[in-house]
Design brief:
The protein is mostly beta strands and 137 residues long. 0% of the residues lie in helices and 44% in strands.
């Protein structure tokens, strides 16, 4: 899609993805090695409107980290972090979801061809699932 200056550009394509992280990321700067690619935005950039994380096993308090890359994943810059609360997964409990706070009212804007990566600070064999929704421009 070509972009014309002084013209409104609306989201063109709704996107969604889900990934699972299991390995602890202990380097929050370069090099980040345990982060998993969550999303790749289109050639005109995009806006993320939902990001939620849920443990797939009993979890201790765990830091969650969101990284942005504009160079194909070579460099990952820490841009957000949330704390996942401890929870014992059982047949008689609902598993709490950690909401990152993004929405239509509070989106995360991403530049063209940017990639988002997610990681966790504490290893969890069962993993943590991360679900994302965004729209490309």
């Amino acid at each position: 899609m070509s972009v014309t200056s002084n013209s409104i550009i609306t989201p063109q394509a709704a996107q969604a993805a889900a990934v699972v992280t299991t390995t602890a990321e202990t380097a929050y700067g370069a090099p980040v090695t345990a982060a998993v690619k969550l999303a790749t935005f289109g050639p005109n950039g995009g806006r993320l409107t939902r990001l939620r994380s849920i443990p797939r096993a009993t979890v201790t308090p765990t830091g969650l980290h969101l990284y942005l890359s504009t160079d194909g994943g070579v460099t990952k810059t820490l841009i957000d972090s949330k704390l996942m609360a401890a929870h014992t997964v059982a047949a008689t409990t609902a598993i709490p979801v950690t909401d990152w706070g993004y929405s239509d009212l509070v989106p995360l804007f991403a530049p063209p061809n940017a990639e988002l990566y997610v990681s966790q600070a504490v290893a969890l064999l069962g993993g943590i699932a991360h679900e994302v929704e965004w729209a490309d421009y």
